[in-house]
Structure formats: C-alpha cells, structure tokens
Amino acid sequence: MLLGYAQLPLYLTQNSFLMFENISLDISNGVAILTINRPKQLNALNKQTIEEAHKALKNIELNEAVGVVVLTGAEDKAFVAGADIKEFADFTIAQGGTLAQRGQELLFDLVEHYPKPVIAAVNGFALGGGLELAMSAHIRIASTNAKMGLPEVSLGVIPGYGGTQRLAQLVGKGKANELIFTAGMISSEEAFRCGLVNSVVEQDVLMDTALKMASKILRNSPMAIRSAIKAVNAGYTSGVNGYEVEIEEFAKCFGTEEFKEGTTAFLEKRKANFRK
Questions:
Q1: Which of 158, 250, 149, 233 is nearest to 196 (CA)?
Q2: Structure pTM?
Q3: Most distant CA pair in the chain: distance in Å?
Q4: Which among 51, 112, 132, 258 is annotated as catalytic?
Q5: How does pLDDT run across 187-212, given as a tens digit for each residue?
Q6: Among the residues of the chain, which ranges form H helices?
Q7: Annotated catalytic, 64?
Q8: Active-site residue, 152 included
C-alpha cells in the first residue's frame, strides 16, 4: 500500500509499505524499516527529510504492532553522508542555532529517547549528520564498506546534532576529540574497535543481521524494554540520577501484566507471550 506524505494516517498498519518524498517506510512482522531515500544526494539530511522522519517515527510510536525500528539508507553507498550543506550555507548565527536546536528536537533526541529500540543499519558513508543519526540510535550495526566521521570542522563549523556529546559518550573524550579535530573518516572495523558500532558484517547480510536482532528483541517485554531505555539514558543525562531512575522503573514493572506473564511463564517452564 502506497501513501503520499499528506495522506499519512493516524498510525501505520502492520504489513504495509509507505513512501514519502525523502524516506521510505516498510512495516512488517513487528519491525518498521525507515530508510533515508535520497540516493542521488547520498541520503543527505535536509529539513524536509528530518521532518518526514519525525512524522513517521511519531506515528510508528502509536502502532502497538511495531516493536523495533531499523534505520538505514537507500542503496549501498551511504547510510547518510551528512547534512545538505547548500540548505544552510548562508545562515546567520541565529538561524544556525535554530537549525541545530530544531533538528535535535525533531529527530536526534527523539531517536535517542524513543520508547522502542532503534537499530541503525549503517550501510555505507555515515558522515556528519549521518553519523550523528546513527549515534542517536540504541544499537549500531555496520557493513564492512561503511566509513564514519564528523568532518564539520573542515567546513568551519562543529557537529550540531549532538555529535560532540554522543561521540564522547560512546568512544571516550580523547578519541572523540581526535575524530572531530582531524575531520577524518574511520573504517567500520576501527569503529567497532573503539566502541562506536556494536558489530560489523558484510553488506549483503547487513539487513538480515539487523532483522535477526530485532526478532530477538521482539520476544521480550515491550514495557520492560521501554523502562530499560529510560534507565540507561538517565545515566547520561545531566542532573539526573540514573540509579534512582532505575529503581523507579524497576518498581513500575511489578504492577504490569507483562511482569505477571513473564514470571508465570518462567515458573511454568514455558516461553512468555508478551505480544498477545
């Protein structure tokens, strides 16, 4: 089923395929595959693409049939090769600030705090805003041909979609400084060694690998995973005590039907069914 951007329904149905102008969305078997679909521009992010991705993610959030989101880029050259520079080359200081703030709010922070697991299947160049998008995901799997980097300082600017913060969280301050200051690219193998990605696989099995991981996630309690996302993120949020958030989220689990199902299934020596 194909729907135009303006025809997007309140929520997206299971086993449906929707096409936007700059993204495509395939929903099947509990997984939503959101593809940045601008291959001629190496899937570069512009304002419209960010807005479309935001709209899609907000609608997927309402769809109880979807338990995992996979982010990737169209074709095999790029995940997202950065932001669309021609869109902001003439911006003022105020416009630059608005660009970063709005982009973070609409997409990058949304992905990081998304209540359903987001897996980035990095299938090629992930540069600038593309790497920032991958870093905002909960899990990153890269293909062997992937190249990653934050080249912004070579353009006289710095990463503005959370890159200076998330990169340091993932690889440490020193390595983050090196990657940002040199504006260089690293291979997927080096990205794995420094903790930037979870695993590296051949290009032809990248999506299968992401979907297999999604399948494992779907066996578990959606509510508990949502709580785990909140607890993990709390540890990286200034002014928030992650241990206290963990205790609060842990306690909440005891009042849910999913906790009852999980513990009952364990005692009865059967597999829990969290998605009845």
A1: 149
A2: 0.92
A3: 65
A4: 132
A5: 999 999 999 999 999 999 999 999 99
A6: 47-62, 93-103, 109-112, 129-136, 163-171, 173-182, 188-193, 206-218, 222-234, 242-253, 257-267
A7: no
A8: yes
